[in-house]
Amino acid sequence: MKYDFDRLVSREGTKCEKFDRREEIFGRKDVIPMWVADMDFVAPVEVQEAIARRAAHPVYGYSYRSDSYFDAIAGWVERHGGWRVRREWMDFTPGVVSGIVFALRAFTGEGDGVVIQPPVYHPFARQIRANGRRVIDNPLRIDGQGRFRIDFDDLDRKLSDAKVFLMSNPHNPSGRVYTQEELTRIGELCIRHDVLILADEIHSDLIYKPYRHIHIASLSEALARRTVSFFAPSKTFNLAGLSTSVVVTPDDSLRRRLRAEFDKLHADQGNIFGAVALEAAYTHGDEWLEQLLDYLSGNVDYVVRFLHEHLPSVRCVPPEGTYLLWLDFGRWPMSHEEIYRFLVEEAGIGPNEGAMFGEQGRGWMRLNIASPRQVVERAMRQLLAAASARGLAALP
What we know:
Blueprint: H1 17-20, H2 22-26, E1 32-33, H3 45-55, H4 67-81, E2 90-93, H5 96-107, E3 113-116, H6 123-130, E4 134-137, E5 141-142, E6 148-149, H7 152-159, E7 164-168, H8 180-192, E8 196-200, H9 221-224, E9 227-231, H10 234-237, E10 245-248, H11 252-265, H12 272-284, H13 286-310, E11 315-316, E12 324-328, H14 336-346, E13 349-350, E14 352-353, E15 364-368, H15 373-389
Parallel strand pairs: 1-13, 3-4, 3-7, 7-8, 8-9
Antiparallel strand pairs: 2-10, 5-6, 9-10, 11-12, 12-15, 14-15
């Protein structure tokens, strides 16, 4: 089946956070929203049809997750990640961040250290602090090609004071997809320091050729025993509103402790339509994902080429994964706050400002390009016009 990612679908008036909160977030209703990380593409038709079939039954009482639900997850992970996961390892969470919070509460105590790698997904630091744990930063470094790399010497030092390493792979917002060598080295350090790994892998399906995602827990039995992995169909198939995610815990002892936390909070019920959508997506979504990645790759190529040709002062290294672009405006003679207001007020674009991902993100902006090509093209034209009016387009 050929899927149409060029199709424009109005999301306004649907209580859509990305569109209907623009005036609240940006102070104006007409910005092109390129902030919150969901897509403007319709979900796969197989998912729509599965939800419609279930919705046709007029009783929406308590439900459970069947064998076919878990088989769909296991099949998807093995096909796309090369990792054979067992049913007994899997649990439901209402979201990846929720799952991470449950794990932090299950495996750490008040005051324990948790290592993160800023600039990184902002709920990491927020939820660590909100639950009385300590944030320990292992900032990523930029190499000569503009790519973000792990400072392993610093990571070695920081893990000595930590109970948990909370990683984002693919990394949000930089778009890095860690190599087997990097993951192996992370694992060796975590074993040396007896640190648990919590792996946020929610973007793990969104990988551009020739890169590939490797589940760190799949590398060895020793790593599987100290890793809790989180993923979901929400980013891959645009299902975030259905609040259905997966946590995989191969170690029996860790899994018992995590499930005890679920029991305390009574947070494992889920909802009918999230389960139906996950099963349909992971059973029938292979072709849709292949076409999606081709389309997203085209959007990435367009933006990178446009900036190189028309706004070379804005650095954009193509991401290895995710549909998020991490743009460096550091050459502009403006403060971080001025750049953000310029993008909103003069270019009419609503990005995520980079400082929310940590102080290392100052001067950077995150742009979501998971929209029809014409929307991305319009955003770039508006950016160029606004920059030209300010004389910024001529900067080297």
